[in-house]
Write a structure and sequence with these properties.
By secondary structure, the chain is mainly α. It is about 80% helix and about 0% strand. The protein has helices at about 5-20, 25-30, 35-55, 55-65, 65-85, 90-120, 125-155, 155-170, 170-180, 195-200, 205-230, 235-250, 255-260, 265-285, 285-315, 320-350, 355-370. The longest helix is centred in the middle third of the chain and has 29 residues, at about 125-155. It is globular. About 60% of the residues are buried.
């Protein structure tokens, strides 16, 4: 790992720590305003809608302008997205403010991934994406536990203030080391016909990513509120997501081995375990049942991200890597937008536990799309 990569991963870790300190507790915060499960769906979808429409535009900008500066802008937006929640006076306010959070995600993640790809040759991207994933997942490992203690001991206002301060700390290594030392590769013209042709060829993989986004969004936007409604305390919810993060990091750290095992085989196995995990959450609505499910699902999430983003990005030329990661994040964002609204509707008209059958169904569909997906000769 070179020094530039180390600085980038440190910045990603601190930003992720700040974001994960509060985001899993937004559904519980909304429940203090008498939010229903359908309301939680609206909140999650508002956040994800902005996230869905932003990355492709940001990916385009990242191929034409300085990616490091766009990365800085993403951090700044996320600072404001956290602190503005202290102004919430209703569920509608939270919906509006989470739109800002979605724009922050849409700027931060695609530019971070483009910077990672800049630092790695094509044949090393799975390894570098794995290391990058360890960095952000380590933040998401510690953050929920910290957030749970803050909510339990000091309340939501301090949660949002401390989270914003943590994210703001990431600006320091960014402006000291990343922005001054970054040299962008050559920029490209505005001809996108080749890129969209590649997207069409890889449509099965994008559909798989959409299903993955649905699963992830339900776990982020609906599961905390569901766990709270069955008597799991905020502190224990934070612990659940911390254990989820440990499992994910353990798999991220060994992500390069999945290529040797076989990409399709690894992805289908992970999708199958996610499907079973959704069923287990529905069938065992208690802390122990949730704990076992999140351990296995966290490991599976650790399989899917580095393989999927590497598989997609390697089919684009190096000078279009910003557009490539933007297309991945857009597909993920579409699923992230659909998932909470779909799950919230199911919870509102039926038993909330049935929400997690949606996860099980998406796991099955992910397997189908992976099995039908094709790979093509790598772009140079």
């Amino acid at each position: 790992m070179n020094r530039r990569s180390l600085h980038l991963y440190a910045t990603v870790f601190v930003t992720s720590l700040g974001m994960s300190t509060y985001i899993y507790f937004v559904p519980i915060f909304a429940q203090t305003f008498a939010a229903t499960f359908l309301d939680l769906g609206y909140i999650g979808s508002a956040n994800a809608l902005a996230y869905a429409i932003t990355p492709l535009m940001v990916g385009y900008l990242a191929d034409r302008f300085n990616r490091a500066r766009l990365f800085t802008l993403g951090i700044v937006i996320n600072v404001f997205a956290a602190i503005v929640l202290i102004l919430s006076r209703s569920v509608g306010d939270i919906v509006l403010f989470r739109l800002l959070g979605g724009f922050g995600y849409g700027f931060f993640w695609p530019t971070a991934e483009a910077l990672v790809a800049d630092l790695a040759p094509v044949n090393k991207r799975v390894r570098e994406m794995g290391l990058y994933s360890v960095a952000w997942a380590s933040g998401f490992l510690v953050g929920p536990l910290v957030g749970g203690f803050i909510v339990q001991g000091f309340g939501f206002i301090w949660l949002f203030v401390i989270s914003a301060a943590l994210i703001a700390l990431a600006i320091v290594p960014d402006v000291l080391w990343i922005v001054p030392g970054y040299q962008q590769s050559r920029r490209i013209s505005q001809n996108f016909s080749g890129s969209f042709s590649t997207i069409l060829k890889l449509r099965s993989w994008y559909l798989m990513v959409i299903c993955y986004g649905i699963v992830f969004s339900i776990m982020s936007a609906i599961f905390p509120g569901y766990a709270n409604s069955v008597g799991v305390s905020p502190e224990k919810i934070g612990l659940l997501f911390t254990v989820f993060g440990v499992s994910r990091i353990a798999v991220f750290a060994t992500s390069e081995r999945f290529s040797e095992f076989g990409e399709k085989r690894a992805l289908i196995t992970a999708a199958g375990i996610i499907s079973v995990g959704g069923l287990a959450i529905a069938a065992n609505p208690d802390f122990t049942g949730f704990l076992v499910s999140l351990i296995f699902m966290g490991g599976c999430f650790g399989v899917i991200f580095p393989l999927a983003i590497n598989l997609i990005s390697r089919h684009f030329p190096n000078e279009r890597v910003g557009f490539a990661v933007g297309s991945y994040e857009t597909a993920f964002g579409v699923g992230f937008a659909v998932g909470p609204l779909l799950a919230g509707t199911v919870a509102a008209i039926a038993n909330p536990s049935l929400t997690f059958l949606v996860i099980s169904f998406c796991g099955v569909m992910m397997s189908v799309f992976v099995a039908s997906g094709q790979t093509y000769q790598n772009s140079k």
